[in-house]
Design goal:
two-stranded antiparallel sheet; elongated; alpha/beta; five-stranded parallel sheet; single chain; 7 helices; 244 residues; 30% helix
């Protein structure tokens, strides 16, 4: 799948994409393909004038600056033309915004899975906004979906874009050391969308605190029952809205 990222700061993504286990998703495989193929577009390359200006004051007054519609439109249209020339299916245009739908597991899973008749995923165009926001006319014309990562405001859309890429990358086959690892993650449908149970490792006693006896008894049926009960208790206490 291919993700095109429109940003003023593409250099912010390098540490995330080159570090840790998820880097496997962004590295070229033996056949030259990538599980998650990321392309960056520097928005200023699509602006006019010596200063490559991409923002201006808002009509009606008020603090801050707004990203102008025309540079954004040129950038999206350039990406769409390149994708079309490569035969890549039409994809969503995503803006990270406080008014967007919450970035939940179901949204991540939708982007992570193959979803066309050829078994390939077109990915998305991700727009990383800055300043006070974007000209609404651009949003109305080009944006197909808005996504939020929480009820707070960031200085730009790069961090939400990284969050989506990270979440999508770890669901790709061969990225995690054990492909079944994510199946037991919090919010996964395999555990009914609940929170994960507590985990313990060696030593059996740490600073006077012992591992629950059921986990070292060897009875896997009892272990599974304990884990299921713990998921329900933790979800009830911490995120009751997740319960059926």
């Amino acid at each position: 799948m291919r993700f095109d990222i429109i940003t003023l700061f593409p250099e912010l993504f390098a540490p995330m994409m080159q570090s840790g286990i998820i880097r496997r998703a962004f590295e070229a495989r033996a056949d030259g393909s990538k599980a998650v193929d990321v392309h960056f577009s520097q928005l200023r390359d699509f602006a006019d004038g010596n200063y490559r200006r991409i923002d201006d004051r808002p009509f009606g007054g008020g603090p801050g600056m707004l990203m102008m519609a025309e540079p954004l439109a040129r950038c999206v249209e350039s990406i769409q033309a390149e994708r079309a020339a490569l035969g890549i299916p039409t994809c969503p245009v995503i803006l990270f915004s406080p008014i967007g739908q919450a970035l939940k597991h179901a949204v991540v899973e939708r982007f992570a899975k193959a979803n066309d008749e050829h078994g390939s995923n077109p990915g998305a165009i991700l727009i990383c906004g800055r300043y006070e926001g974007l000209d609404q006319r651009f949003i109305d014309t080009f944006v197909t979906e808005q996504i939020s990562i929480g009820d707070f405001v960031l200085s730009g859309g790069e961090i939400p874009a990284m969050a989506l890429l990270d979440a999508v990358a770890r669901l790709q086959p061969g990225v995690l050391s054990d492909d079944q690892s994510h199946i037991q993650d919090s919010f996964n449908p395999s555990i009914d969308g609940l929170l994960d149970h507590p985990h313990y490792t060696r030593p059996e006693v740490w600073r006077g605190q012992s591992v629950p006896p059921v986990l070292i008894g060897g009875n896997h049926a009892e272990i599974n029952k304990w884990r299921e009960a713990q998921r329900k208790v933790i979800t009830q206490n911490q995120r009751p809205e997740l319960l059926p």
